[in-house]
């Protein structure tokens, strides 16, 4: 992609209401554009990152045996009356022409429970796990923090259905392992994301959050370094020891929640009377679990964690492009010709390149834009590098650059 | 995929309110499940079809130079006050906590115009075309006809921005060609889809619809067979001749609208004061076009056009799977063993297979399900075919079947 043609270029102005690093850099970098509080447009660069995050999550969900479906945003009020959640403060409501109200789903238990119920005919159809990647709506009183707390935001939500609690527990543990694989692939290693015990509501002892350690996190968690788990604020207020080893040596840390899983047990199957007849003809309520992870929130979190004062430092797996190629040539000079040739070579090699081919921008401007946008590898061609028959190679997460031979650019990128 | 494990199996019952062939077969086949009037869940089979349609549309939009973005569903009321469209009947409205109203966008001119305006800094940034594939909301008084007229439905909408009318006209003609390529790839040839002149509103002489000829179509169009174009009802009421050759020999036909393109001209750039300074320092309003095509509506239309009394006949490019493999084996018998082996072979060859491995279903049930689901190729293994060391090969769109050697299944599928 030629930067000269890209929709959504960098902008120097700091958004007046950018109260967070992710809102600031993502807006300045041309990844997103704010529509209203908590509601964002994704520009081409931003949509590329979001899609890569979604793809990783999708692959891992499929690997767990989850089947992808797509549920709607609109749902009739009756479904929320059935579960008694029609009074949730965060529900956006709208009038249907001709009568009745619809809710904009903030989560999909009210949709998925009757949906699976109507398509699972016997105990032989369970266990079953379905998921979707779709936009959710929450009427947040304080929508802020860029992509971290939105009124409309992207969410992966999986729901699992089981014959008994033991099967739910088994799947739940698999989900924990799957989530850690996702974070690892996204560039967030095990030292970065901590399994955090949270309140389980009325039906389970605990639910679990996945908290990414970050100084700018909104949440405070309490780490047990021995077990490498944490408890959240709710739990520490209740009892101040590690639920795993019972140690009271817990260290507070700021963190951002990047996932949340919950044993719903029979909370929703009971409301919808979703039960099954077992082999002995006995009716049992279906056991349910739910597993949330927000791709747009993850995107904001990655920026909060991976940046420096100049801009974003994308992990390779989710970077909008693999390589940022900069030409410092003028119209029709040899630098431009060499850069055009290298651009063609990289495309032929199926390397995803953002090519800054602008003729009317200064070297400083181009280098600053590359730092702001944060693509992992920067390749620069100038009169100086060509004098050495080479290109300047620099990784975004390293300070030093080096001159490499033009013929060795591809292998340096792949190395 | 094993059919025994698939979420969303066939169902014999006709939905009580299935007023259309697409609603009936898509529901019975396990592709979709109705949530409320005009709002559907997509089950795994349906999401596969929808994704394939989206992929074809996306490729052609990229080919035209369109850049993919993603705009939100929620938008502040002010944007609609600016264009004077806040009173549109089909607008879903919702209250924002803390004050103010948001609209659920039924189309995105109110979002895309200021978005492009704020990111296009000079006349050098134009022309520019952006598109998205996203869900729209319309408060339809009579939501019906399955996926054809929804309250929440999937839409690809592209918007183009130009320095002058000539450039808009050029791009508009390219869009017409691109749309026909998409329909062709979707299985709708040029004899099936007709460019139809429609009212252009206050700024253009005409807009254009793409109408798929179908006896069950809601629309009536008037064909000029000489020019291979049509005019819609609005236009024929105004003047009853072909806008191209002026012939009055127009033949009425029923049709389903599968696309709509519109020269917006300066309708929205004027409202948002989106103008640019040209080389001579003169301010001009930006010329705009919009180009809509609904993947979910296209999906419903394909079912309306490609079916028989037994079920759907998917065009190859959008079928949920390439092959429907049926085993008539019992547990542990040689037919089951041969079918399992063939299933592995097909997967190794990267052929997308739906494998009906159910042990508790009759031959008739399996064959009826295959006809209903409508995958292009059916491969059946039974004692009878194995006696000939073969499999039964049948295309969904042909009456006859044949026995082919087990070793030649792959080449028959690819042939």
Can you walk through the features of this model?
2 copies of one chain form a homodimer. Chain A is of the alpha+beta class. Chain A is 30% helix and 30% strand. Chain A contains 12 helices and 23 strands. Chain A has a 5-stranded mixed beta barrel with strand order 9-10-13-11-12. In chain A, strands 20-19-21-22-23 form a 5-stranded mixed β-sheet, with helices on both faces. A 3-stranded antiparallel β-sheet of chain A has the order 4-6-5. In chain A, a hairpin with a 4-residue loop joins β11 (219-224) and β12. In chain A, α1 crosses α8 (295-305) and α2 (44-63) packs antiparallel against α5. The longest helix of chain A has 21 residues, at 165-185. Chain A is elongated. The model of chain A has no long low-confidence stretch (mean pLDDT 94). At the A-B interface, β1, β2, α2, β3 and β4 of A face β1, β2, α2, β3 and β4 of B.
Assembly level? homodimer
Largest interface summary? A-B, 53 and 53 residues
Secondary-structure class of chain A? alpha+beta
The span between the termini of chain A is 22 Å
- Level of helix content of chain A? 25-40%
What is the C-alpha radius of gyration of chain A, as a whole number of Å?
25 Å
Element layout with pairings:
Two copies of one chain form a homodimer.
Chain A: H1 21-28, E1 32-36, E2 39-42, H2 44-63, E3 67-68, E4 74-76, H3 77-83, E5 92-95, E6 101-104, H4 109-119, E7 128-137, E8 152-162, H5 165-185, E9 193-199, E10 206-213, E11 219-224, E12 229-232, H6 233-238, E13 251-265, H7 267-271, E14 275-277, E15 283-285, E16 287-293, H8 295-305, E17 307-308, E18 311-312, E19 323-327, H9 334-348, E20 353-356, H10 363-373, E21 377-381, H11 383-387, E22 390-395, E23 401-405, H12 409-414
Parallel strand pairs in A: 3-7, 9-12, 19-20, 19-21
Antiparallel strand pairs in A: 1-2, 4-6, 5-6, 7-8, 8-16, 9-10, 10-13, 11-12, 11-13, 13-16, 14-15, 17-18, 21-22, 22-23
Helix pairs in contact in A: 1-8, 2-5, 2-8
